[in-house]
Amino acid sequence: MSIPAAGVSEVPAAREVTRELLRLHARILLRMPVFQLLLIGGFAWFLLPHVAGSDFAVWAAFALCAELLRAAAAGFALSRLPAQSAGKLRGIHVAFVVLDGLAGLSIGLVAVLFLPRAPLLAQMLLETVLFAIAAAGACVALSSRYIVAAYSSTVLLCAGASWARLHPSQAEVVTTLTFVYWVFLLGIARDAEQLLVRSIAIRRERDAAYRDLQSKNDELERLNEQLRLLMAERSRMLAATSHDLRQPLQALSLYSAVLAARPGPQALDKVGRNIEYIVQSVGDLLDNLIDLARLSTGSYALQMQAFRLDSLVHRSCEAFAQGIAAKGLQLHCRIGEPILLHGDPTAVSRVLRNLLDNALKYTREGSITVTLERRDALALMSVEDTGAGIDARQQARIFDEFYRIESGDSAQAGGVGLGLSIVKRLCEALQAELHVCSTPGQGSCFCVSWPRACVVSDAGHAHAGDAAAPRPDGKLRIYAVDDDPVVVSSLTQLLQLWGYEVRTAADADGVEALFGQWGAPQLLVSDLDLGAGLDGLALAAELRARHGEFPLLLVCGDLSDTVQERARAHGAALLRKPVSAFRLRRQIERMLWSQPR
Ligand code: ADP
Fold first, then answer.
1. What is the pTM of this model?
2. pLDDT tens across 217-260, in order?
3. Do 456 and 495 lie in a common domain?
């Protein structure tokens, strides 16, 4: 073991190797008193006939004490080794070097004390044993060439010097041979130490690599498990989505057969309402999926502005009133003083819609109460129902993606378990707090609260869109542009049913002709992608440049942030396909009624 230099000792790996080598040496030293006893016995056997017993006993006691001291020091060091710093380890190593030197001296003294009194044969035997013991010492102290040097030098010095003194004629040869033998032993000790250090380092590297591999393996297993769960969730979601899409498509196909049979006006009315509901639910499902994807990737862009929260809540209640009444439930809408909120009205309305939708789905009888109030600086919006309620254990999980309670009423109600996860993420983005309290069998209450920072004090500042403008007189002219003839035809029929004068076009030339013949419309409803590289927004910009301003409503499938940005830059309203007749009508009326005329 090389005594580490100051710099090297700070390297944790080098320190660990030193610690390991010291531990090895200390363990061997613990067994050495037994070997010492055997040695003393052997020396007694061939020396006692020639030397005084008392002298031999004194030497034997000294040699045994030296060995016991070494063993005690080794035991002490072993108990302290794990916690020692580099400096302390170096101290232990130095102590071992000194103690091994002392042990070597105790053995070497046998030659100094008894060689002169022994006959030649015993002298030769003693010298041979001492030279062999020096070599054995190298084996014991393989872990440090310094220890080998200290032990063997004292043994060999005593043995060589005693022989040279007794036989002066052989002094030179004996001294030279002893020195060469000593150097040879040191060479072996150095190689052995290097080998040991290397093997310990290799073992440590292997252990570290194994641990590293093990932790990577654990990480891989964790990721694998996550992936497996995600895949399972994805399959579940695809299955649920596909089921949720198939159901309305199946219903639509049946309704088309009903329509083809030309039913009476009452049945037609009912079929119309149902088809509208179906389209709305399909649109909702697609909206949910897109919103979740955006919220998951952090690409959901909030359009922050000051808006009247009370008006928004009122409108949402109105939108749900019919569905709630149709299920035989009562709707209580308790809206307190006007509240002007700083937030994204679309996101807030989405939160409220999802909560109302759930309340409607999971309530069989009783009522749904929507409350909006101001408590100190807080704005509180809650949706309370007298429905199935949610078990306390499930309450934390219902906000997870694709999590549904597959029992009782929940199992029968449609849904893929996205609504509340979207509500939760939207609330986080809106800096609103979301709470749920529910008692199974009695009902649930979902409460969203906005802190002072979001509530704008001047509630008198109503949003332009909140004020209801009077319905204009006379027929309003709307141009509908879409390259899909089925869409154009259905849109035209619907708009005409609502009392508008409708002109249609499928491409740029067609629209240009309309503008040339009839001038600018009160509203242009257009798709974004008009085929052949034609873009609804670019087309509208060209038309505005030539024929003056007109309102633009873009109905398209692509509602990426870029499209929303562009639409905003062109002052156009956006609706996502598929859009229900209800939403389309509401948007068109909002745009037409708010126009200055
Ligand atoms: P979905 O309604 O599409 O299943 P949600 O994420 O909106 O997904 O809701 C998750 C689950 O929470 C639902 O499956 C339902 O069991 C439960 N839940 C949500 N709202 C209510 C409520 N108002 N009353 C009872 N249970 C509800």
1. 0.48
2. 999 999 999 999 888 877 767 776 776 677 678 778 888 888 88
3. no
On the 0-12 / 13-18 / 19+ scale of CB atoms within 10 A, 372 is buried
The DSSP-derived string for 381-440 is: EEEEE-SS---HHHHTTTTSTT----SHHHHHS---S-HHHHHHHHHHHTT-EEEEEEET
Which among 190, 213, 236 is the end of a domain?
213
Atom of ligand 1 nearest to the CA of 404: 14
Kindly state whether residues 428 and 490 are assigned to the same domain: no
Q: Cβ distance 192 to 142 under 8 Å?
A: yes
- 40-81 pLDDT, tens digit per residue, is 999 999 899 999 999 999 999 999 999 999 999 999 988 887
Q: Which of 357, 398, 423, 437 is the pocket-test mutation for ligand 1 (most atoms within 8 Å of CB)?
A: 398
In terms of domains, do 522 and 417 share one? no
Q: Is residue 5 part of a domain?
A: no
Q: Do 418 and 289 form a contact (C-beta atoms < 8 A)?
A: yes
Query: Which domain, by its residues, includes 420?
Result: 304-461
Paired tokens of 555: 């109905």
Does one domain contain both 497 and 537? yes
Q: How many Cβ atoms sit within 10 Å of the Cβ of residue 562?
A: 9
> CA-CA distances (angstroms) from residue 404 to 303, 358, 361, 469?
30, 12, 13, 43
- Same domain? 55 vs 169: yes
Residue 531 lies in a domain: yes
Question: From residue 503, how far is each of 198, 490, 500, 540, 595 by CA, in Å?
Answer: 90, 13, 10, 16, 20
Ligand 1 pocket test: which of 420, 421, 423 has the largest number of ligand atoms within 8 Å of its C-beta? Answer: 420
Cα angle 164-167-173, degrees, rounded to a multiple of 5: 55
Question: Based on the domain organization, do 357 and 451 belong to the same domain?
Answer: yes
The CB density around residue 521, as the number of other CB atoms within 10 Å, is 24
User: Which residue has its alpha carbon closest to ligand 1 atom 8?
Assistant: 417
Neighbouring C-alpha atoms within 13 Å toward the C-beta of 581: 16
Query: What 8-state DSSP symbol labels residue 535?
Result: B
Q: Looking at 441-483, which runs of residues are DSSP E strands?
A: 443-450, 455-456, 477-481
Position 218 in a domain: no
Give a yes or no: residue 252 inside a domain.
no
417 and 507 both lie in a single domain: no
Sheet holding 501-505, edge to edge: 501-505, 477-481, 523-526, 552-556, 573-576
Residues 314 and 414 in one domain: yes
The angle, 0 to 180 degrees and rounded to 10, between the axes of the packed helices 171-260 and 145-166 is 170
Tens of pLDDT along 122-155?
999 999 999 999 988 877 777 788 998 999 999 9
Number of domains observed in the structure of the chain: 3
- Can you give the CATH number for the domain in which 515 is found? 3.40.50.2300
- Give residue 100's identity as a one-letter amino acid code: D
307 CA from centroid of ligand 1 (Å): 28
